[in-house]
């Protein structure tokens, strides 16, 4: 059994919750009997470790369902508080759902726990580990779901800032959803500078890595999520991190050179013209010329298999479920 305290709606730490976020508790389940007490959750296994936290597979003994419980250690920077605020407000089929947030109301070194929808298929990273690469038809559906999720988030002024395979989770139907708002940012003004070091550097856009050279000071933060989406989709096609060759260790210097100074990206010959164009529009180094999420949602590559029965990664997770 878990030792976190009862659910609490007022966080003990003062943090700046941006005014642009809509009012809280618009979706955290509040109906009786859903998830009221952490002691109703039985820890079954560790699903993964992230930055400062552990994710467990848990079983709710009263409603007899599985969930994922992410436990973060709160620190003096209030890490985890903005993530909780964001999770409490988002409600979209393209975002991993948060059913409850629990915090420790009486100590400065407490934990914060997020009870999340359990994604049976693990992450896209797990899928790629097992299947190495994905066909374009699947990537097309995947891209559509990620872009729909980003469109929703950006509409709420939320920049994800850490789109990467391990933050795209898959359920047993093969549907992909965006997870992990640990380094997300809420944009209040049109252009705003935030901590550009947060996130995973391999998927960072040129303007975040080298703001001087790529106009990062004035950059539209949402464009960084588009860049990362392009990197992930190309990685799915190739089966390895695309900005450096297969088998190379992506150290910081190599990455910085590839992202900020690299020659025009060579597209895989086998890729369709639509996919090549889609990736080029995402991986435009100059953020002013890069496609927007809305433009990409109308791109001929995106969702081109929507009329058929494809549910995205269904065939991939069902054959080799990781959890
Ligand atoms: N809702 C969930 N259902 C199933 N597995 C999950 C869920 N949430 C997270 N996981 C698993 O736990 C792992 C760790 O998740 P977490 O969000 O803490 O960190 P991360 O994204 O892997 O790393 P980082 O924090 O460094 O970005 C994920 O990669 C995934 O395998």
UniProtKB/TrEMBL annotation:
Positions of ATP binding: 70
One GO MF term attached to the UniProt entry: ATP binding
Protein kinase domain mapped to chain residues: 41-302
Family annotation (Pfam families): Pkinase
Gene Ontology BP term (one): response to other organism
Claim: Lyase is one of the keywords in the record: no
Protein name: mitogen-activated protein kinase kinase
Origin species: Glycine soja (Wild soybean)
Lineage of source species: Eukaryota, Viridiplantae, Streptophyta, Embryophyta, Tracheophyta
